[in-house]
Specification:
Elements: E1 2-8, H1 14-31, H2 38-41, E2 45-51, E3 57-58, E4 61-62, E5 66-73, H3 80-97, E6 107-114, E7 119-121, E8 124-126, H4 128-138
Parallel strand pairs: 1-2, 5-6
Antiparallel strand pairs: 1-5, 3-4, 7-8
Length: 139
């Protein structure tokens, strides 16, 4: 379940650049109700993209937006409440890991779902049932 963080250079603190993905991983496992499940946790990865400030826009204008995009199968964060929990937690994490003056209005969270069977690891397409079985087996 890739998490992609995109931020203009200088908005995340140096520690924030290192800590944002581990903290977002914890937030995702907690919002999913699967904290401590090694099968689920092992499927969460991500990247941090630090861009030149002049390459980040919102509303057609240059603006210091931090974007967090989460891609996961349909079975992940299946309820509106679970998605809202992750969005709140991710926004709080960004707030803690950015420089003074960064505003929450400049933190955008986007959750995308892959359809059943449109998720894969190691070259194998995994259906929701396969993923649920792997997560349950690891519990």
């Amino acid at each position: 379940m890739p998490i992609t963080v995109t931020a203009p250079r200088g908005v995340l603190t140096p520690a924030g650049e290192r800590e944002i993905l581990p903290q977002l991983t914890v937030a995702l496992t907690e919002a999913s109700g699967l904290a401590g499940n090694p099968g689920f946790t092992s499927m969460v990865g991500g990247t941090v993209h630090i861009l030149a400030p002049e390459h980040v826009y919102a509303g057609g204008a240059n603006r210091p937006v931090v974007m967090v995009e989460l891609k996961l199968p349909d079975i992940g964060l299946p309820t509106a409440e679970a998605r809202a929990t992750f969005i709140r937690a991710a926004t709080d994490i960004v707030e803690r890991l950015t420089v003074d003056g960064h505003h929450n209005d400049d933190t955008w969270i986007n959750i995308l779902n892959a359809r059943d069977g449109a998720w894969g690891i190691g070259g194998k397409a995994l259906a929701n049932a396969d993923l649920a079985a792997a997560i349950t087996a690891a519990a």
